């Protein structure tokens, strides 16, 4: 059963109509596969190592990468809309998260920046993400300083206004 669902997933996600649908969700995909949503979700999570939205985003970004190379005359917004994103900012964020570069930096769109395929070394290197925990701790420390600073400048209400 798992192999059958995986095969169906590959076939359905390879079609432009399905992946280009910005309203695609697990339920609609399950209907297209003629399988129960629970089983489809289980196969995606356990066998493919991603959740539904990660799988769809990965597929959309791979399609966008091909389009950026094959059709450099198309704008980034046109490509984003054609692969199923509703906004350019969401597309840029997802693209950068997966590839390490923005869509405009990718491919032969920039003359003199890489080979004709757009897949040169500089563009395929994944950038390391900053340590989220360290960043969160620093933000908390700054927030605490702001709170303490506010308390130091707060003066007690005059006795006439106290209830």
Unreliable residue runs: 110-129, 145-154
Secondary-structure element series: HHHHHHHHH
The span between the termini is 71 Å
Beta content? under 5%
Quote the average pLDDT.
76
Overall radius of gyration: 24 Å
Which structural category fits the helices and strands? mainly alpha
Percent helix among the residues?
Answer: 55-70%
The DSSP helix count reads 9
- Approximate shape: globular
The domain tally reads 2
Biggest beta sheet attributes? none
**Number of strand elements:** 0
Describe what you observe in this structure:
This protein is mainly α and 163 residues long. The chain is 61% helix and 0% strand. It has 9 helices and no strands. The termini are far apart. The model is unreliable at 110-129 and 145-154 (pLDDT under 50).
Short account of what is shown:
The protein has helices at residues 2-13, 16-19, 26-33, 37-47, 52-70, 76-82, 88-99, 121-124, 132-153. It is mainly alpha-helical and 163 residues long. It folds into 2 domains: 1-49; 64-154, no CATH class.
């Amino acid at each position: 059963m798992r192999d059958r669902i995986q095969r169906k997933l590959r076939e359905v996600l390879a079609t432009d109509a399905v992946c280009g649908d910005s309203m695609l969700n697990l339920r609609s995909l399950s209907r297209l596969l003629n399988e129960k949503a629970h089983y489809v979700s289980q196969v995606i999570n356990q066998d493919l190592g991603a959740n539904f939205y990660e799988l769809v985003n990965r597929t959309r970004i791979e399609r966008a990468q091909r389009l950026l190379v094959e059709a450099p005359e198309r704008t980034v917004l046109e490509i984003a809309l054609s692969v199923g994103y509703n906004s350019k900012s969401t597309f840029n964020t997802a693209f950068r998260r997966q590839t390490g570069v923005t869509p405009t930096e990718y491919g032969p769109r920039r003359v003199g920046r890489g080979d004709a395929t757009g897949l040169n070394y500089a563009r395929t290197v994944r950038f390391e993400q900053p340590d989220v925990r360290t960043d969160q701790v620093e933000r908390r420390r700054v927030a605490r300083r702001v709170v303490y600073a506010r308390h130091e400048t707060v003066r007690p209400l005059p006795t006439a206004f106290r209830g």
